[in-house]
Here is the input.
Amino acid sequence: MKKQETGKRGEQLACRALEKKGYRILEKNYRCRHGEIDLVARHRHCIVFIEVRSKTGDSFGTPEESVTAAKKQKLLITALDYLSRHENLPENWRIDFVAVEIDPANGKPNRVEIIENAVC
Here is the structure.
């Protein structure tokens, strides 16, 4: 499975898991000059910016470990950009991660974990 395929499959699996937990996906792949946010969703009375990290092996650590401090800072700045450009949003917001581990042989998930408030 190529890196791009892994990422796309991870986002599909993440969307499915999030929707089962009551998240409503508003936007995919929000981009601005500061960076990109994989998913923007609404969960209860909160806007949630979601970074999806997908891996097919553990040779370089877990999906969660692949998010650097610099990436967290970019997510924060990009989330603030989104909030400034959209009206009528709930006051509360947060950044979540979804860690996805995929079996490279069959493309099925070994693990899909939602980590709320991953960036404070």
Observations:
- The helical segments are 3-20, 69-85.
- The mean pLDDT is 92.
